[in-house]
């Protein structure tokens, strides 16, 4: 665990849930903070009777969802900042259409598993005019899943929180790498299909 993570966890231990909520909120806004570790530790603290399970869960959920909603709103309002020629380009339209077809899965899976992509997914959801009510529902379900899984792991294995966070980080890195490879292959395939064929060179 990094020195920054240790410092943050020490602050949570010293100052309680307010600091944990601030960290989770800022993490949802895209700051590289150890939010999953915080949730794991909250579970451990609940088992040690430091925090109440209901209060800790609800505050963690509210903090995370609030940050996600703000990023969604930035994406929605930020659409007008993007040059029109980009918005109407075939690549941009294809990207938005692809996201819209799989938006629910993308939002849900990035809330609790491929968490490094949560920020850009929320941003794209806003830009693609995805329904806010659907985003809020799926986002909340995803965050509940995240808190339940990792808070539950922290509660169950309170003495092995560091090991749990390390395993999760390794799995997330592996899945993110595979996803990038698959996306690269997909983009290459689509580009090759859309490229003019039968061109003659002098």
General description of the model:
The protein starts with a helix and ends in an 8-residue tail after the last helix. 78% of the residues lie in helices and 0% in strands. The chain has one domain. The longest helix is centred in the C-terminal third of the chain and has 34 residues, at 161-194. It has 202 residues and is an all-alpha fold. It has ten helices and no strands. Helix 1 crosses helix 2, helix 4 packs across helix 8 (118-127) and helix 4 packs antiparallel against helix 9 (132-156). Mean pLDDT is 80; it is low at 197-202.
At a glance:
This protein has helices at 3-15, 17-28, 35-47, 53-77, 84-87, 90-101, 103-112, 118-127, 132-156, 161-194. It has 202 residues and is mainly alpha-helical.
Count every helix, treating DSSP H or I runs of 4 or more residues as helices: 10
Query: Cα distance, first to last residue?
Result: 60 Å
Number of strands: 0
**Helix vs. strand class:** mainly alpha
Radius of gyration, CA atoms, in whole angstroms: 20 Å
Helical fraction equals over 70%
* Mean pLDDT figure: 80
- Low-confidence runs: 197-202
- Overall 3D geometry? elongated
Integer tally of domains = 1
* Beta-strand proportion: under 5%
Main β-sheet description: none
Q: Spell the H/E element sequence.
A: HHHHHHHHHH
Question: Mind sketching the topology for me?
Answer:
Elements: H1 3-15, H2 17-28, H3 35-47, H4 53-77, H5 84-87, H6 90-101, H7 103-112, H8 118-127, H9 132-156, H10 161-194
């Amino acid at each position: 665990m990094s020195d920054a993570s240790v410092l943050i966890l020490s602050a949570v231990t010293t100052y309680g849930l307010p600091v944990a909520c601030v960290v989770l909120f800022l993490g949802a806004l895209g700051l590289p903070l150890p939010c999953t570790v915080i949730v794991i530790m909250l579970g451990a603290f609940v088992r040690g009777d430091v925090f109440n399970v209901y209060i800790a869960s609800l505050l963690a959920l509210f903090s995370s969802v609030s940050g996600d909603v703000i990023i969604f709103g930035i994406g929605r309002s930020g659409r007008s900042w993007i040059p029109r020629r980009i918005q109407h380009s075939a690549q941009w339209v294809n990207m938005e259409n692809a996201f819209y077809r799989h938006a629910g899965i993308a939002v849900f899976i990035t809330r609790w598993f491929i968490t490094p992509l949560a920020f850009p997914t929320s941003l794209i959801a806003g830009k693609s005019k995805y329904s806010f009510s659907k985003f809020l529902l799926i986002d909340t379900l995803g965050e509940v899943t995240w808190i339940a899984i990792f808070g539950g792991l922290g509660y169950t294995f309170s003495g092995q929180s560091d090991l749990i966070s390390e395993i999760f980080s390794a799995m997330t890195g592996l899945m993110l790498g595979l996803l990038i490879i698959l996306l690269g292959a997909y983009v290459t395939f689509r580009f090759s299909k859309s490229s003019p064929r039968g061109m003659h060179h002098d």
